[in-house]
Design goal:
Helices cover 33% and strands 11% of the residues. It has 266 residues and is an alpha+beta fold. Helix 1 packs across helix 3 (87-108).
Length: 266
């Protein structure tokens, strides 16, 4: 009920965000391009790296992309947690994520499969940055592709213990390009999540290094540098027993009662 009300109010305030045919309306086009004023991602200014702004959000290229096309979508206000955001801000944030997905799909998914070495987030830094540069340079896709022509990882590290290294809500949008950066089908898990929680995905640490002009390999003067975290312990599927229906129904009942109590309390 509460969520539905917020959704309705947000829809009335920002109708172009909820109607696919109006996504690229005149009003929306005016929000594209380089931001006109300073844009900050946490304590760091990223104005020149911003490629899309909306009434409540902005999208920015990533200093440490795990894979080609890995970008971030953030609210303009430096909210630390997703639950700090208003309904209108949340609606705008995820509408912007969808818009960025469509753009990235047009750029990356309409290409024939690449020949040569398959790219993963664990490839060497030089090969990773080379592929990012090569693919980004191809400004004309081979076909008008849609998100259905590939896949995406969409992730939020909500809080320090979840691996957040910049105290500003940000959504990771990572295209998985068929034949190039898609998940390795021969593996059970996806290494992208491990890398996101490690130094490879430590965007806060990389921004800190750039701000302080300190090389990643340097040890001096690194006190206060954001550290990665939030990785899950490795658990093999054989060790993860499925719960019984009774256990799941009991938990669902606890959550229903808690939500009802929260609604009564306002």
């Amino acid at each position: 009920m509460i969520i539905s009300g917020r959704y309705s109010r947000a829809r009335c305030s920002h109708p172009t965000l909820f109607h696919r045919r109006n996504v690229y309306s005149t009003r929306s086009r005016r929000t594209m391009g380089t931001a006109t004023g300073p844009v900050r991602f946490g304590p760091y200014e990223v104005t020149t790296q911003v490629f899309l702004t909306t009434p409540h959000s902005f999208a920015v290229v990533n200093l440490k992309p795990l894979l080609p096309g890995h970008v971030l979508v953030c609210p303009h206000k430096p909210h630390r947690r997703l639950t700090d955001m208003s309904g209108a801000e949340v609606s705008d944030l995820f509408a912007t994520v969808q818009r960025v997905q469509h753009m990235l799909a047009r750029h990356y998914f309409g290409r024939p499969p690449a020949t040569g070495q398959r790219q993963t987030s664990s490839s060497s830094p030089s090969s990773s940055s080379s592929l990012v540069t090569d693919l980004a340079a191809e400004t004309v896709p081979k076909a008008k592709a849609s998100p259905d022509d590939g896949s995406f990882n969409i992730a939020i590290q909500d809080g320090v213990d979840a691996g957040q290294t910049v105290p500003h809500v940000h959504v990771h949008v990572i295209p998985r390009i068929p034949g190039q950066t898609a998940k390795d089908g021969s593996t059970i898990g996806d290494v992208i999540y491990e890398d996101m929680a490690g130094e490879k995905g430590n965007v806060g640490g990389a921004l800190w290094d750039r701000e302080k002009d300190i090389a990643v390999s340097g040890a001096a003067g690194r006190s206060g540098r954001p550290e990665p975290g939030g990785a899950f312990d490795r658990i093999e599927d054989v060790d993860r027993a499925a719960r019984s229906m009774a256990e799941m129904e009991e938990e669902a009942g606890v959550f229903r009662e808690l939500l009802a109590r929260m609604e009564r309390e306002g």
